[in-house]
Write a sequence for this structure.
C-alpha cells in the first residue's frame, strides 16, 4: 500500500495544456479522429469482475430472515433479508409504480432499487417528480455521458455530478484527439448514449478498499487525487459499473440505463480540475435527460424562451449594462440601467423609512483583524480581495455585518434603544473564480439591501414577523410567488441548545402567524443560528433564493456586544443582543438579472428606464413635441422624442421594440388642444390608434400607475 501511494503521489495535477480550451462555435472543429477503445477500460473491468464475484459470494452466504417493510402510509409488506429489494415491493404494489421508480429511501438513506434490504425497513419509493429522484436520475445520466465520453474521446474522467438542471462531466481530452470539444461532438456522444440506453446496462454497486481503488484507477491521476483526498487509509467506498464504464461513486443509481428515456448533450465549456486555476484545464460537457420524450420537448421550448429573456442579451439590446475585461465580474451600468438600479434602491429606502430602519454608511476596507474576529477570515479568506497597506494586511469587505457590530459597540446601549435596525447599501466585493462569473447573477462587485437588526430575545418574534411582511410586500410588488423553509440547528453549532430551541420556536410561531405555509428543513441552519430560506418563482417557473432571514448568536459573542437590561443587579444588568441578518433583494445586480428575465425586458412603468416616447407626425410640431417632453420630464418621467427622418410608422415600431411603456403621437390637432395621442404597450386595443388626452390628464393617469407600482401599463 505504501509503495502504491508513493507512485500515485507523483502524478501532477498542473500539467498545463498548450492552449486553454474554450467553447467552440457551432459547426467548428475538425472531424473527430478514430479513437481506439482505451485499454484502461479492460483493466478496470478485470479488477471489477474479480472483486464483484467475491462480494456476490458474501451476499449469498448472508442469513435469510423474515423482515417487515413499513411504507409511508403505515402499511406493511413482508420480505426476506438479503433477497427482497425495493423494486420487489414496488412490483407488489403496482406495475406502473415499479416502472416509474427511480430510487428508494431505506430508513432515511437513499438506496438502489435492486439492492437487497438487510433488515426491517421504513421504505419510501421515489420517482422523477421528487427532488431526490430527479437528482439520482441525472446522476445516473451523468454516468451514461461519461461512458460515451470515454468511448468517443478516449479521455480520462474527472467529476460528473448532477446539477440544478441536468448534469455535466469534466474530462481530460488526450492530445492525440487533436482538438478541444466542439458542438460537432454532440451528435456522436448522443449516439453512444442512446446505444447504452438501448442495452439497458444494469448499474452494479461494488464496495472497494482504498488499496483496490488505487489499483483500479491508477491510470487516472484525477481519480487518484480524489481517492487519496476523500478516502481515509484503511477505509473503503463504492464504485458503480454500467456497461464498459466503472466510476468512483457513492451512488445510488437507477436500476439500469434503460430507465433513461430522453437524453441530450446541451453545451460545453472549459473548466479547471477542482475549480482551481492552478490545476489542469479540462473540458466540461453538460447534458439533460428525462423519463418522457414530451418532457424533453417541453424543456427545449423552455430553453428557447429563456434564451430570448437572457438578461445579458436584453442588457445589451436595451443598453442597460455591460462587462469589460479591464474589470472582470464588475458591471458597468449605463444610464438606462442605472435608472433601474436607483429605482430599486429608492423603493427599498421608502420601506426602510416606513419600517423604522436607519441607513448607515460603513467603510469598504478593513484590517484583516476584523475578519479574524468575526470568523470570516478562517472560512472566506480565499473569496476575499486583500491588499497590503503600510505593512499591514487589509481586505475589501464581502459582508456588512462585522462593520455594523462595530457601530453597535461604539458606546453603551440600553434596552430602551432596541431594536436597532442598521441598513447598508455599501459596495461589497467577493473574489469569485473567473469561470464562475455569469452576467449579473455571479459578480465580484455588488450591492445588497443589507440590514442587521440588533434586538432582545423577547423581540425576535415581532422582528421576524416584520421581516416576513417586508419580504412579502416587495415580492408581491414584483409579481413573484415564494416558498418558505425553516432551517434548524445543524450538527455543528455554537451556543446553548436551550437558546436554539427558544429561537426556533419563535421562528415557527412567526411563520405560522404569517400564514403563507412553510416547510421544515431540519439540520440545515447556519452554525450561528436558525434561518428562514425564501425561494421565489419567476414567470418561467424558475426558482431563485434571494431573501434570507437569519438569527445570529455568534457575532454578539465575538464582538462582546451587550446592552443594559435596566435591572438593579450590576453583574447581571447586561445581556447579549441577538442579530437578525436580513436582505430582500439580496444582490441588487442579481435581482436586476432576475427581473429582466421575468419581465422579458418589458419593464412595468415604475421600474422602466424608458417610460414615454413622444413621436411628432411632422416637423411642424417638433417644438410642441419638445414641450411635451419637458412637461413629462418635470413630472418625473423618463421621456425621449424621436425627431429622426424615419416615417411615422417606423418611429412607432422602433419605440415598441425599445419597450417604451407609452408612445405619445402628436400632430397639429394635439398641438392645438395641448394633448397627446397615447398608445399603451400593454393595451393591444390602443396600438392601432391611441386615445387622445390632455397632457395634464395623461400625467395624472401615469402617476396613479406609478404610485401603485402596477405591473401593467394600461391607462384607466
Amino acid at each position: 500500500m505504501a509503495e502504491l501511494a508513493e507512485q500515485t503521489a507523483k502524478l501532477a495535477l498542473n500539467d498545463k495544456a498548450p492552449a486553454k480550451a474554450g467553447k467552440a462555435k457551432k459547426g467548428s472543429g475538425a472531424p473527430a479522429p478514430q479513437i481506439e477503445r482505451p485499454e484502461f477500460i479492460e483493466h478496470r473491468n478485470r479488477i471489477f469482475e474479480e472483486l464483484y464475484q467475491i462480494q456476490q459470494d458474501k451476499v449469498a452466504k448472508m442469513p435469510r430472515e423474515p423482515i417487515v417493510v413499513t411504507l409511508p402510509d403505515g402499511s406493511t409488506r413482508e420480505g426476506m433479508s438479503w433477497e427482497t429489494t425495493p423494486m420487489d415491493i414496488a412490483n407488489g404494489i403496482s406495475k406502473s409504480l415499479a416502472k416509474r421508480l427511480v430510487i428508494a429511501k431505506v430508513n432515511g438513506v437513499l438506496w438502489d432499487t435492486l439492492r437487497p434490504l438487510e433488515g426491517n425497513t421504513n421504505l419510501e419509493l421515489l420517482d422523477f417528480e421528487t427532488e431526490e429522484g430527479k437528482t439520482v436520475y441525472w446522476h445516473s445520466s451523468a454516468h451514461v455521458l461519461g461512458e460515451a465520453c470515454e468511448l468517443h474521446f478516449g479521455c480520462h474522467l474527472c467529476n460528473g455530478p448532477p446539477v440544478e438542471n441536468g448534469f455535466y462531466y469534466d474530462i481530460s481530452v488526450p492530445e492525440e484527439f487533436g482538438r478541444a470539444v466542439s458542438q460537432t461532438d454532440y451528435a456522436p456522444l448522443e449516439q453512444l448514449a442512446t446505444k447504452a440506453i438501448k442495452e439497458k446496462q444494469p448499474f452494479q454497486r461494488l464496495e472497494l478498499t482504498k488499496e483496490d481503488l488505487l489499483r483500479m484507477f491508477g491510470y487516472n491521476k484525477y481519480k487518484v487525487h480524489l481517492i487519496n483526498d476523500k478516502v481515509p487509509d484503511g477505509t473503503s467506498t463504492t464504485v458503480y459499473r454500467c456497461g464498459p464504464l466503472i466510476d468512483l461513486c457513492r451512488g445510488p443509481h437507477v436500476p439500469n440505463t434503460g430507465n433513461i428515456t430522453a437524453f441530450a448533450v446541451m453545451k460545453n465549456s472549459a473548466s479547471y480540475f477542482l475549480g482551481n486555476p492552478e490545476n489542469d484545464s479540462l473540458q466540461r460537457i453538460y447534458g439533460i435527460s428525462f423519463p418522457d420524450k414530451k418532457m424533453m420537448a417541453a424543456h427545449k421550448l423552455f430553453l428557447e424562451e429563456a434564451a430570448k429573456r437572457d438578461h445579458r442579451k436584453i442588457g445589451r439590446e436595451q443598453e442597460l449594462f455591460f462587462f469589460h475585461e479591464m474589470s472582470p465580474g464588475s458591471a458597468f451600468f449605463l444610464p438606462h440601467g442605472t435608472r433601474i438600479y436607483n429605482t430599486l434602491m429608492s423603493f427599498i429606502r421608502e420601506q426602510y423609512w416606513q419600517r423604522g430602519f436607519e441607513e448607515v454608511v460603513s467603510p469598504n476596507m478593513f484590517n484583516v483583524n476584523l475578519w479574524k474576529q468575526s470568523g470570516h477570515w478562517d472560512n472566506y479568506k480565499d473569496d476575499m480581495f486583500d491588499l497590503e497597506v503600510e505593512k499591514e494586511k487589509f481586505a475589501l469587505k464581502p459582508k456588512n455585518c462585522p462593520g455594523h457590530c462595530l457601530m453597535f459597540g461604539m458606546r453603551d446601549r440600553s434596552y430602551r434603544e432596541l431594536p436597532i435596525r442598521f441598513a447598508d447599501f455599501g459596495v461589497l466585493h467577493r473574489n469569485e473564480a473567473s469561470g464562475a462569473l455569469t452576467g449579473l447573477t455571479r459578480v465580484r462587485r455588488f450591492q445588497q439591501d443589507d440590514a442587521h437588526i440588533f434586538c432582545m430575545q423577547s423581540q425576535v418574534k415581532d422582528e421576524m414577523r416584520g421581516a416576513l411582511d417586508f419580504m412579502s410586500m416587495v415580492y408581491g410588488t414584483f409579481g413573484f410567488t415564494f416558498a418558505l423553509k425553516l432551517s434548524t440547528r445543524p450538527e455543528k453549532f455554537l451556543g446553548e441548545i436551550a437558546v436554539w430551541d427558544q429561537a426556533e420556536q419563535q421562528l415557527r410561531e412567526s411563520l405560522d402567524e404569517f400564514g403563507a405555509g412553510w416547510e421544515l428543513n431540519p439540520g440545515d441552519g447556519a452554525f450561528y443560528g436558525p434561518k428562514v430560506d425564501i425561494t421565489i418563482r419567476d414567470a418561467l417557473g424558475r426558482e431563485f433564493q434571494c431573501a434570507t432571514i437569519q438569527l445570529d448568536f455568534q457575532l454578539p459573542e465575538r464582538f462582546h456586544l451587550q446592552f443594559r437590561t435596566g435591572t438593579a443587579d450590576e453583574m447581571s444588568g447586561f445581556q447579549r443582543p441577538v442579530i437578525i441578518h436580513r436582505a430582500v433583494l439580496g444582490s441588487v445586480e442579481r435581482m436586476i438579472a432576475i427581473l429582466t428575465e421575468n419581465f422579458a425586458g418589458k419593464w412595468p412603468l415604475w421600474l422602466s428606464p424608458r417610460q414615454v416616447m413622444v413621436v411628432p407626425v411632422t416637423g411642424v410640431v417638433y417644438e410642441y413635441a419638445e414641450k411635451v417632453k419637458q412637461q413629462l420630464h418635470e413630472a418625473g418621467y423618463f421621456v425621449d422624442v424621436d425627431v429622426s427622418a424615419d416615417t411615422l410608422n417606423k418611429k412607432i415600431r422602433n419605440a415598441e421594440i425599445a419597450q417604451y411603456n407609452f408612445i405619445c403621437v402628436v400632430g397639429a390637432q394635439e398641438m392645438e388642444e395641448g394633448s397627446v395621442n397615447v398608445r399603451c404597450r400593454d393595451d393591444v386595443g390602443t396600438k392601432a390608434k391611441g386615445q387622445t388626452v390632455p397632457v395634464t390628464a395623461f400625467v395624472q393617469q401615469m402617476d396613479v400607475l406609478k404610485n401603485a407600482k402596477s405591473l401593467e401599463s394600461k391607462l384607466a
In short: Residues 194 and 263 are 7 Å apart (CA to CA). The first strand starts at residue 66 and ends at 70. Residues 1-10, 16-28 have pLDDT under 50 and may be disordered.
